[in-house]
Amino acid sequence: MKLSSRLETIKNKVTKHYDHIWDCCCDHGQLGTALLASQPKSVIHFVDVVDELMVELESRLQKHALKVSSQWQVHCMDVAQLPIVPNKKNLVIIAGVGGDLLIELMRSIQSRNGDIELEFILCPVLHNYMVRCELIEMGFGLISETLVKENKRFYEIIHVSNQAAIPLTNIGSEMWDLLDVNHQEYLQKAISHYQRIEENSKGMNGVSDLYLRLRNSTFQF
Hints:
Elements: H1 5-12, E1 20-24, H2 30-38, E2 43-48, H3 51-64, E3 71-76, E4 90-95, H4 99-112, E5 119-123, H5 128-138, E6 141-150, E7 153-161, E8 166-167, H6 181-200, H7 207-218
Parallel strand pairs: 1-2, 1-4, 2-3, 4-5
Antiparallel strand pairs: 5-7, 6-7, 6-8
């Protein structure tokens, strides 16, 4: 199964062993299915709230499972109630949802499991700055981050843990390569976006200046 650039980047961030990998809001299960092959010693959990999708996915996995040695489980449930397995290494992947919902899910998972190590790979479709600010407030640090362009849209893929020592920043640090024209394009779009917001709102003053300082201190274009 050929993955999109975004999902392939997420898959490639899973470079170590986890006992349980949770593919949340998994839709048709493309990412989790790819992880069955690349992470054969992990239990891959497919999680979505849409019953029809999960019934169809489970049927396909039952046929596909004969070709792989991985264990898998399908869960039709609210990601906010995710049953993290205690005393095991868990990785939670949440991609393809808006920033508001992603923050809501993260806060619920953290409140239910605040005394254990939590590790996430996140790819919001909107509100990256807000997501980052909330993650910092919740005490998450950075493992890695990558900027991906797919079908003319940009995605920030952020790998974080509540045990990571590298500080997470609200506009990104490690993901930028401003010699790359795609990164230049994304940065300029971010500056313009927050400048428009600041003209009409008092809630996010100064955000565009952060991006401007990044541009001016790193590369002139």
